[in-house]
Design a protein that fits this description.
Order of helices and strands: HHHHHHHHEHEEHEEHHH
Strand order of the largest sheet: 2-1-3-4-5
Number of helices: 13
CATH class of the largest domain: Alpha Beta
Radius of gyration: 34 Å
CATH architecture of the largest domain: 3-Layer(aba) Sandwich
Mean pLDDT: 84
Number of domains: 2
């Protein structure tokens, strides 16, 4: 559905964390979610019912019924629009091949996500990630930790203090021992939501850490504890939810962080490139080198001017420090040593 004046008002007036949660839930399912009850809307947004009503009053509706009436009027205007009717009368057949269908499905998902986006929510996450005193710790679930690792890898190129912290079996909550207000945890959690991540998020919140959540439009229970939430549609023809929009969100986060910390990031990337060039340039000055094909020689181990008692071309079989028991000129019955023999 196209953005309307009410849609834009909901998006632009949300300021606090609680207001952004309410606005995000409304926009993700507009206008359907606007027609639910206050209690249902509050539960979906992980806020209280009075919080929902205060936000609606802020955007000009003293009663919830007035807000719903305005949302219904929005729908009726959209349905009666000649432009919308033209589009509705010209459905297109989806491509027969799964490859094309998938690409078009994901392209549509990106367009929907862009139309429903809450820039204020996105900016709140970037504000936390560019804080110079913060330590950024990223983690995800079974099928989303690869997203956390990707964002961690790229952020670590732009700023210090970035850690990928996978939930290792038996050590799931150990990371929380040092958690505190200086930490920002970025968590990726999509259906089916993992209880370990929820418990971890609750513990992180209790420690005073800040939380950013990437999840789907049904919203992980972690949203209740998060300072900011980015959701993404995950429809896919495969048995697994799509992460195309989530990947695009990561790209946008990295772009925003690099722009906000341009000088800082440029210096850090230059230093990283300098360090990488050391490996490409060969051994460092002063490091030991070995000449190919050169080995220890017997003559090099002898004192200057002193001849070996062994016959030419034959090495002594005795260990260093022990005299040979064989008479001069008689070969030893033991095999020769690989180390240089000491003078007999």
């Amino acid at each position: 559905m196209a953005a309307t004046a009410l849609f834009d008002r909901i998006r632009s007036e949300a300021r606090s964390t609680a207001e952004r949660k309410v606005a995000s839930v409304l926009l993700e399912g507009y206008p359907t979610r606007a027609l639910a009850t206050v209690d249902v809307l509050a539960k979906q947004a992980s806020v209280s019912a009075p919080t929902v009503l205060r936000f609606l009053a802020k955007i000009g509706f003293s009663r919830f019924a007035d807000f719903q009436a305005a949302a219904i009027a929005d729908v009726e205007r959209q349905l009666g629009s000649p432009l919308n009717n033209i589009h509705a009368e010209a459905p297109t057949e989806p491509p027969a091949h799964v490859y094309q269908r998938t690409l078009l499905m994901q392209a549509e998902a990106l367009q929907v996500a862009a139309a429903q986006a809450m820039p204020a929510e996105f900016d709140a996450i970037v504000d936390l990630l560019v804080s110079p005193r913060a330590t950024i710790k990223l983690l995800g679930g079974r099928y989303s930790q690869n997203l956390a690792q990707r964002l961690a890898t790229q952020l670590s190129q732009l700023r210090p203090g970035v850690l990928f912290t996978p939930l290792a079996l038996g050590f799931t909550y150990d990371t929380l021992v040092d958690a505190g207000p200086q930490d920002v945890f970025v968590i990726f959690d999509y259906r089916r939501y993992q209880n370990e991540l929820l418990t971890f998020a609750r513990g992180a919140r209790q420690s005073g850490a800040r939380l950013c959540l990437f999840t789907d439009i049904w919203r992980s229970p972690i949203a209740e504890y998060a300072d900011a939430v980015l959701t993404s549609p995950d429809a896919s023809p495969s048995p697994f939810g799509s992460r195309v929009v989530a990947t695009a969100q990561i790209e946008a986060i990295v772009a925003a962080v690099s722009q906000r910390c341009r000088d800082w990031s440029r210096d850090r990337l230059a230093r990283i490139e300098e360090l990488r060039s050391l490996g490409a340039a060969g051994p460092l000055p002063g490091s030991p080198t070995k000449t190919p094909g050169k080995s220890f020689s017997k003559s090099s181990s002898e004192p200057p001017g002193r001849a070996s008692s062994e016959p030419p071309g034959r090495a002594s079989s005795e260990p260093p420090g022990k005299a040979s028991s064989e008479p001069p000129g008689k070969a030893s019955s033991k095999s020769s040593s690989t180390f240089p023999a000491k003078e007999s």
